[in-house]
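Inverse folding, one chain.
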């Protein structure tokens, strides 16, 4: 990594975060707005522009060499467009073009949010030092990204490693993506909670029916809550093992809200993984919690911008 300063955007259905980040991954300036996710696309873009305007007002802005964007997806990096499932006003939205116009033609790199988190974990987190890794976000949805041969591998459109939509139950429930039995349909937070409720789990007096509440119940020994996490762990294990068999990763990193559940997830996950990752070249695969926390999207977007800047410098641009 060079010591250039870059700008980063982390765009999701809840917030639009921005930062100026140095070549060591330190965040020097921050800006943030709530995502007006249910409003029209131009309203969402105005919130992005406000974040960029706040960053540009910093005296450090003159040192910014490139801008990286990690966005909820699907994204199409080849076209510079985004269509986040949870931002209905953006469908094929020309985000790269609009951001480039707002920041004075700086080089802009777009990647999916799962790929951004992968970049962060490989640069500074749990996948550091591993040349072949899968990093996952298990939260409201399930996303991911790949590091292959020591390099981030976003794929042609920026979506490679999207493990959430590998089918692990051929005749399973219909997923909103249109397929059946997807990892996300079984292992995401809302689906863990849904399955527990469907099987008779009752929330406590506070009425909290979230996956975090199911995790707390599982830690306390509630058998229905335990079973819901075991089913999620089985789906994750099958998807991770399939990925490892295909591209020979040696570590899988799990972040996101569900990834914070601790032993109620990682215990059954490691047990299930032993049943699926059976071939000699995947049997040493390890699964670990993510380390980068809530800044992972920003740090990963910055990593992508730094890589873009390095590639441009190498090409003499």
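Residues assigned per position:
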């Amino acid at each position: 990594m060079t010591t250039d300063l870059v700008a980063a955007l982390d765009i999701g259905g809840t917030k639009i975060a921005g930062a100026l980040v140095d070549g060591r991954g330190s965040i020097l300036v921050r800006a943030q707005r709530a995502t007006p996710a249910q409003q029209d696309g131009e309203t969402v873009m105005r919130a992005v522009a406000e974040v960029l305007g706040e960053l540009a007002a910093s005296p450090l802005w003159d040192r910014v060499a490139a801008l990286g964007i990690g966005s909820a997806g699907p994204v199409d990096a080849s076209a510079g467009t985004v269509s986040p499932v949870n931002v209905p006003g953006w469908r094929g939205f020309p985000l790269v073009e609009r951001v480039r116009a707002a920041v004075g033609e700086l080089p802009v790199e777009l990647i999916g949010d799962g790929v951004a988190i992968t970049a962060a974990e490989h640069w500074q987190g749990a996948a550091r030092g591993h040349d072949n890794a899968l990093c996952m976000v298990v939260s409201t949805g399930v996303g991911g990204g790949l590091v292959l041969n020591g390099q981030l591998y976003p794929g042609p459109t920026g979506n490679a490693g999207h493990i959430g939509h590998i089918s692990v139950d051929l005749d399973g429930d219909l997923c909103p993506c249109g397929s059946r039995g997807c990892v996300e349909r079984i292992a995401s937070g809302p689906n863990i909670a849904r399955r527990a409720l469907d099987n008779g789990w009752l929330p406590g007096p506070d009425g909290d029916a979230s996956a975090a509440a199911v995790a707390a119940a599982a830690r306390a020994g509630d058998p229905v809550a335990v079973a819901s996490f075991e089913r999620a762990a089985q789906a994750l294990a099958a998807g991770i093992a399939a990925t490892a068999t295909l591209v020979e990763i040696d570590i899988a990193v799990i972040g996101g809200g569900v990834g914070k559940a601790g032993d109620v997830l990682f215990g059954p996950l490691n047990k299930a993984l032993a049943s699926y990752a059976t071939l000699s070249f995947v049997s040493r695969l390890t699964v670990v919690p993510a380390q980068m926390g809530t800044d992972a999207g920003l740090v990963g977007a910055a990593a992508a911008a730094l890589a873009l800047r390095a590639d441009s410098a190498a090409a003499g641009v």
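The chain has a mean pLDDT of 92. The first helix runs from residue 41 to 56.
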